[in-house]
Hints:
rod-shaped; little secondary structure; two-stranded antiparallel sheet; single chain
Amino acid sequence: MNTKMMTLCGVLLLACSQNVDLGARDAGLTPETGGSTNILATGGQGNVIASGGQPNIGARCGDAKLDVGETCDDSNTMGADGCSANCQVEVGWHCTVGRACISVCGDGIVVANEQCDLGAANGTGRCTTACTRSTALCGNGIVDPGEACDDGNTVGADGCSALCMVETGWQCAAPMQACVPTQCGDGIVQDPEECDLGTAHNNGAYGACSPDCKITGYCGDGVQQPPEQCDMGTSLNDGAYGGCAPGCTLAAYCGDGKIQGPEQCDDGLNNGSPGTCSANCKLPS
C-alpha cells in the first residue's frame, strides 16, 4: 500500500471516530467526568441524578423527604398541623420526616388536642402532666359553679377555704392568685365589712361609712338622725297615717294642715284653739 492510500485510511478512521462521539451526544449520553451530572433518557423523561452533592431538581415540599431548606416534611403541604405549607416546623410541635407532627406537652404552648399547657407548672393545679384540664373542681385554679374562689389548692385558712369559699376577713381577686386580708379603706366591700367607700369617704357621715367600715346612720335603721324627720325601721316606714314614710319623712298626721285619713278637720298649728279644730283633728262639739 503506497503512502497516499495510508493517509486516506487514517483520515477516514478519524472521521468515523468523531461521528460516533457526536452520535452519542445526540442520543443524550454525556460521560460522567469529574463529578458532573449525567442526563439519562428513561421513558422519554429526563431524570437528573445528583452527583458531587448537588440537590435533586425534582425535590419539593410534601414528598416525605427532608430536602434542602426544609425542617420537616409530613407528606402534605397543609399548615396548622405542625409542619407548615413550606415545610417548616411550627411553634409547639415536634415533627418526624414522613409522619404526622405531634404537640409538645410542657412547652407552655397550647396546640393540637392539648386542653391546657402551663409548662413546668403542669400537674400542680388546673393542668395535668398530659396537658388535660384537671377533673377536680375545688383546687383546679378555675372558679367553677358553686365556688366563690379557687386559689389552686384545697388548703384552708389562706383566704380561700378547702371548699373554695372566701373566708371571713379575706378578699380573693382572681383564680390562681393568693387571697389577701380584707383592708378597710380600699374601696372594696368584703366580709366582715358592712361598707367601704375608700379611706377619704369613710368619715362616718349620715348615709356614708364609718372609718372602721361600718354603716353609719341611714333611713331604715330605726334611729332618727338628721336630716330624718322620723325613722321607725325599714318595715314600719310604710307611710301609714301618723307614721313614717319610706324616705324617713313624716306621713300624714294631725296638725299638718291637711285633712287626711280619719281627720274631720285640720287647722295645723291652730288645732285646739277656741272656735277651731280640736287637737285630735275632730270638729268641736
